[in-house]
Design brief:
Layout: H1 2-18, H2 22-30, H3 35-67, H4 72-86, E1 88-94, E2 97-99, E3 102-112, E4 118-129, E5 140-154, H5 161-172, E6 178-192, E7 195-196, E8 203-204, E9 207-219, E10 222-228, E11 231-234, E12 237-250, E13 253-263, E14 266-276, E15 282-293, E16 306-318, E17 326-334, E18 339-343, H6 347-355, E19 363-366, E20 368-376, E21 379-389, E22 393-402, H7 406-413, H8 435-445, H9 459-481, E23 486-495, H10 504-509, E24 519-527, H11 534-546
Parallel strand pairs: 5-6
Antiparallel strand pairs: 1-3, 2-3, 3-4, 4-5, 6-9, 7-8, 9-10, 9-11, 10-12, 11-12, 12-13, 13-14, 14-15, 15-16, 16-17, 16-18, 17-20, 18-19, 20-21, 21-22, 22-23, 23-24
Helix pairs in contact: 2-3, 6-11, 8-9
Length: about 550
C-alpha cells in the first residue's frame, strides 16, 4: 500500500515539475532532487523539446526566405531600391521570382532622371544569382546579369559640365551590397542622340545599335563592351552589319578598340575613334569605306538616278549634343572599283540623248576624278567635284543637299505636313511610298484604341510603348518627306565637240571650247531631285527640236 502511494506521489510530483517550465526543471535536476536518473530523463525530454522548437523556427524562417520574394512589400522595396540606385524617375520590376538559386525577372523598365545616363531602359527575361540570404545579410554577389532582350536609350549629353559629371558617375557607380561583374544580352538595341525639326536649329545626331549580342564587363574602373551581329547606324552610315565592335568606356572617355562592319558587298572600318566625355561629348577618329555600294548609303529616292561603288577615308568629328551633330568629312577618289554612275532619269541627260545622234547618255559612268564630301547638321556638301567619264563627259562644281524650309514644305504640299525631315543619307528610305505612314495616320484618325496592358504596374511600360509609337510615326513621316530634300549648286559639264553637229542653232548657242574641242554647258542646280536640270533640259529640247 505504501509502495503504491509512493509511486503515485512521485508520478504526480514529476507531472507537476514538468508543468513548471524549463528553468525550474533544470534547477530541480541540478539540485539533485529526484536523483541523477531523473535529471538525465528531464534533460533528454527538455533537449528533445528544444530541438523540436528549433526545427519549427528554422522551418518557418526557411519558408519566409523562400516566400519573401512573392510578397508585395518585397516587390515595392525592390522597385524603390532600383529607382534610387539608378537615379531614375520611375522603375518597375515585373514577375520577380527565385528558382534554383537564380533570381528571375520577367520584365524590367526604368525612366531616366536628371542624374541617370539613360532616358529609358526596357529589358526582358533577366536572371542572375541569388542565394537564400541575399538581400537580408551580407553582400549580394549576383555574378553576370543575363537578359534575353534590352532596349536602352542613352542621353546625348547634358546642359552643363556639372550635370554631365553626375551622369557619368551613374554609369560607373558600384553598390557595396549588390555586386555584379558583367552584363550579357542576347538581343540588345541601344540608341543615342536626337533629331531637332526646328528650321533654325536642325540637328540630327541619332545613332543606333540594333538587335546585337552584347557583352559588357567591368574593367579597370570602367566597362568593356563587345557587340556582334545586328546593325549599326550613325548619320549617313545606315544599317551597317556589325561583324565586331569593341569599346572601352572609362570615366571621361570612350575608345573604339575594334570596329568592323559590312555594308552590302563592301566594308566599313573605324580607326582610332574616340569620344571625350562632358556636356558636349566630342567625337574624333577616322572611318574607312571600301567598295561600298552607293545604294547602301543613299535614300531610295535617288536609286533611279545614281548607282556605283565608293571608297574613301573620312574624318569623324562633332558632338551628339551640338548644333552640327556628328560630322563626317573626307575625299573620295574614283578609279578601279570606285565608280559613280548617273542614269538617264536626270532630265538633262534625256534631252542630250535626243539632240545628240552620235553619243548615248543612258548611263554616264564617272570612273576618274575626285570630290570632297562633308556631312554635318543634317546637310550634305560636295565640293571640289572634278569627275570624268572617259571621253563622254566631264563634271566640275559643287552641290549642297539640305532639308526643305518651312516655306518650301508648305509650298510643296499646300500646308505644313509636319516638322520632321530626313537625314541626307538614310538607306531604305522609300520615295513616294507612304503606305505605312498613311496606315498609321488613318488608324489614328479613326481613333483606334491603344493596345496597352492595364494596371498601375504597367504604367511605365505603357508610356514607353506610346513613345515608341510616336517615334515610328515620325520616322514614317520622314520617309515620305525624303523626296523633298533640296539640291543647290553649280556644275559645268563638257561633252564631245560633235554632239550638236547636226543642229546648227545648238552649235552656235553652245560653241565648243577652242582649247579642248569640247562643248561646255553650265548647269545650275536648284530644287528637288525631280526638278534638278529640268529648265536646262527643256531649253535644250526646245532649241534642238524647233530647228
Amino acid at each position: 500500500m505504501e509502495v503504491d502511494q509512493t509511486q503515485s506521489f512521485n508520478q504526480k510530483l514529476s507531472q507537476w515539475i514538468a508543468s513548471q517550465g524549463f528553468w525550474f526543471q533544470l534547477r530541480h535536476s541540478m539540485s539533485g532532487g529526484g536523483g541523477w536518473a531523473m535529471t538525465l530523463s528531464h534533460l533528454l525530454r527538455l533537449g528533445f523539446k528544444v530541438l523540436i522548437a528549433l526545427l519549427v523556427a528554422a522551418g518557418g524562417f526557411g519558408v519566409y526566405l523562400v516566400k519573401r520574394v512573392d510578397a508585395e512589400s518585397f516587390a515595392e522595396s525592390l522597385d524603390a531600391s532600383v529607382k534610387t540606385s539608378l537615379g531614375a524617375k520611375d522603375a518597375k520590376l515585373l514577375g520577380f521570382s527565385r528558382i534554383q538559386g537564380d533570381a528571375q525577372i520577367t520584365r524590367f523598365g526604368a525612366e531616366g532622371g536628371d542624374e541617370s545616363f539613360f532616358r529609358s531602359v526596357d529589358a526582358g527575361n533577366v536572371r542572375f544569382k541569388m542565394d537564400l540570404l541575399d538581400g537580408i545579410a551580407g553582400d549580394w554577389d549576383a555574378g553576370t546579369l543575363i537578359a534575353k532582350w534590352m532596349e536602352l536609350d542613352l542621353k546625348a549629353g547634358a546642359d552643363t559640365p556639372d550635370a554631365a559629371a553626375r551622369i557619368g558617375e551613374s554609369l560607373f557607380r558600384e553598390w557595396p551590397k549588390f555586386q555584379f561583374s558583367s552584363v550579357e544580352v542576347d538581343d540588345a538595341t541601344l540608341s543615342w542622340g536626337y533629331h531637332s525639326p526646328l528650321p533654325q536649329n536642325r540637328i540630327d545626331t541619332r545613332g543606333r545599335i540594333e538587335h546585337s549580342r552584347m557583352a559588357a564587363t567591368r574593367s579597370g574602373g570602367g566597362w568593356r563592351l563587345v557587340f556582334s551581329g545586328g546593325k549599326f547606324s550613325q548619320n549617313w552610315l545606315q544599317g551597317l552589319e556589325i561583324e565586331k565592335l569593341v569599346m572601352e568606356v572609362m570615366p571621361g572617355s570612350l575608345v573604339v578598340k575594334e570596329g568592323n562592319f559590312r555594308c552590302g558587298t563592301g566594308t566599313v572600318t573605324f580607326h582610332d575613334v574616340s569620344v571625350t566625355g562632358g556636356d558636349k561629348p566630342a567625337f574624333h577618329g577616322k572611318v574607312e569605306i571600301s567598295r561600298v555600294e552607293i545604294a547602301q548609303l543613299l535614300p531610295k529616292a535617288l536609286e533611279p538616278f545614281l548607282e556605283g561603288v565608293l571608297s574613301g577615308n573620312f574624318a569623324l568629328s562633332g558632338s551628339t549634343n551640338a548644333a552640327g551633330g556628328i560630322q563626317l568629312e573626307g575625299d573620295v577618289t574614283l578609279g578601279g572599283d570606285s565608280v559613280v554612275s548617273v542614269r538617264e532619269r536626270l532630265h538633262l541627260l534625256k534631252s542630250l540623248s535626243v539632240v545628240d545622234v552620235y553619243n548615248s547618255y543612258r548611263k554616264i559612268d564617272f570612273n576618274r576624278g575626285s570630290f570632297h564630301l562633308k556631312s554635318s547638321g543634317g546637310v550634305l556638301e560636295l565640293s571640289r567635284v572634278d569627275l570624268k567619264a572617259d571621253e563622254l563627259m566631264t563634271l566640275q562644281g559643287r552641290l549642297k543637299v539640305r532639308p526643305p524650309s518651312e516655306k518650301e514644305m508648305a509650298g510643296a504640299v499646300g500646308e505644313n505636313p509636319g516638322n520632321s525631315f530626313a537625314p541626307i543619307f538614310q538607306a531604305g528610305t522609300p520615295a513616294g511610298s507612304n503606305e505605312a505612314g498613311d496606315d498609321i495616320s488613318l488608324r489614328k484618325a479613326a481613333g483606334e484604341p491603344k493596345v496597352t496592358q492595364q494596371g498601375k504596374e504597367m504604367e511605365i511600360f505603357n508610356r514607353r510603348a506610346q513613345v515608341k509609337s510616336e517615334e515610328q510615326f515620325k520616322m514614317d513621316a520622314i520617309a515620305r518627306e525624303s523626296q523633298m530634300l533640296r539640291y543647290e549648286g553649280d556644275f559645268r559639264i563638257t561633252i564631245p565637240g560633235d554632239a550638236f553637229e547636226r543642229v546648227e542653232v545648238l552649235r552656235s548657242t553652245f560653241p565648243a571650247d577652242a582649247s579642248t574641242g569640247r562643248i561646255p554647258i553650265d548647269v545650275p542646280i536648284q530644287g528637288t531631285i525631280y526638278e534638278v536640270t529640268r529648265r536646262q533640259a527643256e531649253e535644250l529640247l526646245e532649241i534642238g527640236t524647233k530647228h
